[in-house]
Every structure is written in C-alpha cells, then in structure tokens.
C-alpha cells in the first residue's frame, strides 16, 4: 500500500488521469511529440500495469487520490466533460445525473436545500446548517446560498453518500458534495464558450491558464448567465424566474520546489434575480377575500406559470472569498494546509402572500463571515501502515436584519375574513378597537408587523484521523475518528407592532370584568390587584366564574356565557417576542461528539473490490434565527389561549419576562447523530464497470423545519432511518458508445417522531423521499476518419418514482386533517435531456442542447398559503429549455 500526497505515486496519478480522460471522451486520440525519450524498465512495467487496469476515474473522497474502484466509499462522480455535454450549469442541475442527490429550491434564489438518501435541511433559516456539506476545492460552504453560482472550470464533482463526519470537519451527517476545479497549468491554454437559448438565454464563459515563470502558473475564469423568466407577473407585466448571475475566479499555482506547492484562489459571484414562481394549487375560502379586494390569483392552475404579485421580488446574493492551500512533501509524509475566508451577503424583498392584493411582504438582509483552517498530515509508507491525521477550525458570524411589512389591503382582508367566519356582515375592526380600548384604525394598519435583529457566533474545532493497515496484499483495515467541539452564541430581538397581537383576549376580558366588579379603570387593574381579587375570600368565586367565561369559545349551537373575542385569535399573526439572551435563556449551545468509522476493504480480484463499513456522523445544534423562535416548554407554560393571568408558575413568568400571547416552541434543535452500515462492491473490467452499495442508515434527532402557514417550526425528530441500495454502471460495448445506468432505492421510516408539527408520525414513511431514482445516459462519438473531427451525441433520462410530497399541510384544522389533505399531493419526475456537439480538431465546437426535452411537469414542493387558511401554494417545475453553443479550446 503506497500513497503519494493524496493517493498513489505521482507517475501512477498521471496515468490514471489519462485513463479518466479516455473514458470521458471515448475514441479520442492523444497527440504526442515526435521526439520522446525511451522509457526505462520501471516505466515500461508501470505502463503495462495501467493498461491492464483499463479506464479509471480518480477521486479524493477520502482526502487521498484513489481510483473510483479502489475508494471504499459510496460516491458518484460527474466529470467536467459530462457537465459540459449535459449542459449542467449549477448544482440544481446536478441531480439529473446523481440519483441519490435531490435539490429543492424554495421562494428565493438562495433558498435551496440538498438531500442525499432522503436526508437534508437548512435552506430557509441561516441558523440551520445543512446536513449535506458542500466543499469547493476543500473549502466548506456553510450555507447553500454560498454554493449556487454557475459551475465554471470544473474538473469533477463528487457526491459522497452517507455520513462523512470522520474526515470532513463540519456538519456532514447526510453526505458531502465536493466540487474540484482545475489547477493552473504551465502550458498556455483556455477556452471560450457562448450559448444562446430560448427565453433569450445568453451564457458566456471563458478560462485562460498558463505560466508566469518557471515555477508559477495562473488561471482565470468567468461566466455570465442571463435569461428571461419562464414565469410571468401578469398584473405587473414582468418576468419571474429569470437568470441574472455572473462569477469570476482567479488562481495562482506556485511550486518553489518539487516537494512544495501553494495554490491561491480568489473568487466572486453575484446573483441578482427575480425569483421564484409560486402558483395556486388549491383555492380555499380565503380566495374570495383576495378577489373582493381587487386582488388576483390564477386559481388551481400551477403550470400556467402566471403569477399575481403587488411587487417584483428582489433576490441579491454576493458571495466571495479567498483560500490558500499548501502541500509540503517531507520524505514519506505530506503536510496539507487549507486556509480560507469567505463572506456571503444575501438580500431579498418579497411579496410573501403571492397574490396581487397588498397584504404583506418580507425584507431580509443577511451577512455571513466565515474563517476556516484545516491542517493535516498524511503518510506514504511502503509498509503495512499508513495514516492521516488532521485538525479543523471554524469561526463564523451571522447577522440578520429583517421585517414584515403590512400591506394597504391587509386590514380590509382581515375584515372580510372576519365577516365570513362570524357570518356577520357588520364585522368591523373599529368595533373591536373600541371594545379593547385601542386607537381607531390601528389594527393591521401599522407600517410594519414586525422588525427583527438576529445574530449568531459559531466557533468549532475538530481533530480527525484515519489509520490504514494492510496485513497482506489486497486486504486493508481502516479505523477513523473525529472529535468535534461546537459552540454557538446567539441573540434575537423583535418588535411586534400590530396592537391586536399585543392583547391577550382572555386576559382582556378578565381585566375588564375585575375593573367592573371593583368600579375602577382597567388601567388600574395591576397584577397585585388581580392577585388579591383571585385569592380574596369573597372575590375568589367571582374570579373563577370570570375565568371560566373568558376561556369559553362561543358556539351558536350551544349558547352559553362565552368570550366573543376568542374568535379574533386567528388574526394575531405575529405576537410579541421574548428577546434573548435573558435571565432564563442564555442563548448558547455547547455540543461535542466523537464520531468514528470502521471499514474492511478487500481486493477479491484485480478487477473486483469489496468493502464493509460502519460509520457514525454528527451535526451540531441548529438555532432558530427567526420570528418563530419560542421558549421551550418548561421555561414557560402558557395558560389557556395564551393567558398570562391563568398561566402556571414558570421561570419566564416568575422572572417578569412574559409577554402577551407568548407560546412555546424551540429556540434551537439539538444535534443530529447518524450511523450507517454499508456493504459495497466495485468492479472495473475491460469494457464495463459497476459500483454497488447496500446500506442501512439512521439519523437520531433529525432537525425538522416545517412551514405552518404563518411561520416555521423547528424540532428534533426522534429517529428517521432509511434502507436501500445504490447501483451504477458504465458500459462501453463498442468504442464509439458509452452507456451509463444508475439507480437508487430508498425505504425510509420515521422510527420515532412523537412531537412533530403534524402530530405523531412514528411508524410512517417520511414524505418527499421517492422509492426509486434512476439516471441513465447514452453517449455516442462518431469520428470522421482520421480528420480528428468528432460528433458527440448524448441522451440522458432521469426518473423519480411517484411519492407523496409532504406528510401534512397546515391550515386545515386538526393534525389528522392536515395529514389527510397532504395525501392528495404527489410527485413523479421523468426528465429527458439531450445534446449533440460537433468537435473539430482545431478546437472549435458547435452544439445543440435541450433540457427537459419532453416538457415534463411536476410540483417541486408545496406549502400552506401564507395567512390564507384552506389554500395551498406550490412551485412548478421548470419548462423545457433549449439552445445552441459555440466553444473554442486552445
């Protein structure tokens, strides 16, 4: 067993990379200089060995360079050539060729979630780190918004499936997406590319590399991507779901000696788009209120791509950073250091009710600053032992300023709904304001519903390592570990402006009745007066009667003394907030974990490898950086209908921190802890190869984040598991033809999820995880004699089996009703993509391409319409796109 700085010896590495190029570009001829030195005997033996190995692909999934056949990890690889041929522009498109990966985009360009084997979260709240870690050139992108720029100058993308916490320093409990770009070269070269497609799509890309000196090389690359939207804001005559993004990257490669290398990378990308198309899937009773106000939706017509908004959404993402990687060979040891600083600025301004009525909008500005340092030492011994030992440091700060703005139609919308619910055409907020002593015309008439300020500092460090022991040729025993310590300190503050939300409807009746009984003003009913009235010998029975009436909802079918104000609770969307840290809640999480991997790998034959492994994974606590952050039950225990007067003793109440209508929920969710058993086979024969992995994976404490219609609920699922297998194969039946087939089968289960937002889901199948994912392709390369010209045609197909989209949809009453409604909405995906490219010997290429060629339509995801009980909104899939490309390589 012998490794260079990442894998086998450098000469072997060169041969393997040539093999990888051969399989990606079948039939390609490699030009050689006429004068070549005669190889010595060792080189001839090495060449013979590599010829016997056949075509191979090199990966760094274990932070050492190995062939795809050798690496004992379930990993899929997408080469730069496939990315070009399949017109894969960003990680959203990557899922069409990696069946274990699913990507979901939500209401803005930056809200994207990655799922591997059905596990994933973290897009809609910057306090949640993703369960799928994204690394670009070894640097962790802590938020998915920082990994969404167009893919430029990519050498390969590796998707590592299952927990990867042992070797990756931060939150990889579900898997890893590792993007590897090309290093600068010492020979001048590059490429330029121009694309024109339907929807007036224009893409321009280019890269240039070459020497600066004997030991110094550079590369620069950039891309520009602009396209009209495939959706339409009808009433504003504006496009929606457009593309408007660019990126630039510069690199320097400095090799002062044969044993020392430095790679400096700086990059900047910007997204400035109008996103995203949301359509009406189910038009509930609130639809009539929208139309009564003069607003509009396109009812239950998701794939018209017609949307009605009262303002164009703004999505701006600036993502930039710099990294320095140093590799130093000291005899049989290699020291690697990766130092990086990144900054992410995310801003959006959005109409969140997705109607043309002016109800509410949200503005959010977020800034993330991240410093990371990785240092590792790896060995390259000839003996039976080799090791890798490393350390990782992570320091991040997050700041967010946001607000919910009240629209000019919000008050009228509320009065219309109030009249409908109460079946009383005279329903008026003015009457309510008079009854509650509020200023006239104040309810739902403030410029803001809420304004918020959130921040979080996260410091983490880890020590990781791996030892490989090869007792005899072909058998490798591996043990790996990772100890992680993670600390988060967070602060949240919010102001809720709506006067109705600041009134508890039970306490208002109690105070009013006590004031009447004592003949004093309600303003004089202090907590001391209430306490005396509730415990007085003559007044205590009266207090009990008042409390009983105040907590009784009115029912026309069974008239009795009741509280007519309780029906207004549905209008208390954003009640007051308890800021933290405070005297009860310290605003901190402190986590540590020891993860490990045990693996046995065996070369059954020269062409067939097998492995069995057991691994654990870890993701630290996530923080609910949102207006839906609530104290934990126990820190506060609300009274009936949120009453403070009737609330039992609790630390927040006793500490004088309670505010009207305070409810409980979560400030943060505890860690995720994953484990997986996996058995794998990997084979590479003369004209075909395959990889098979069978696994049983579970995740304790999965951090579930669900939209409820007016907010988000963060909670830990008790245990979620998935069993299944992954199989992929590449077949080269004849030289011009390469066939690929990949399939993932998943059988997930909520082993325990008692306190979920939709009730007890234990024993049920998690929604959104299909049983079958299939990705297959055929690439045919026709060579025109000895001219060097080729015609490369590719057809690929991606299938996701029919599956229920959500386990429950809020806004339909009971948990059982929410689950029943969700059963009606399912998704099946059948995507066909095609491309053909004429590649000339002089480096010029012409091509045609189409994505979603057959215009398959499906629901991306759905959610209860914001503040529109009984209605459902959703995201339609993107329609067919197509175009032409011209490329020149030199």
From TrEMBL:
It is found in: Cell outer membrane. It is a multi-pass membrane protein. InterPro entries: Beta-barrel_TonB, Beta-barrel_TonB_sf, Plug_dom, Plug_dom_sf, TonB-dep_rcpt-like. It comes from the Bacteria. Keywords: Cell outer membrane, Ion transport, Iron, Iron transport, Membrane, Receptor, Signal, TonB box, Transmembrane, Transmembrane beta strand, Transport. Residues 1-31 form the signal peptide. Residues 294-853 form the TonB-dependent receptor-like beta-barrel domain. One of its GO terms (cellular component) is cell outer membrane. Residues 68-176 form the TonB-dependent receptor plug domain. Gene3D superfamilies: TonB-dependent receptor, beta-barrel domain (2.40.170.20), TonB-dependent receptor, plug domain (2.170.130.10). One of its GO terms (biological process) is iron ion transport. It holds the Pfam family TonB_dep_Rec_b-barrel. PANTHER family: FERRICHROME IRON RECEPTOR-RELATED, TONB-DEPENDENT OUTER MEMBRANE RECEPTOR. Belongs to the TonB-dependent receptor family. This is TonB-dependent receptor. It comes from Qipengyuania aquimaris.
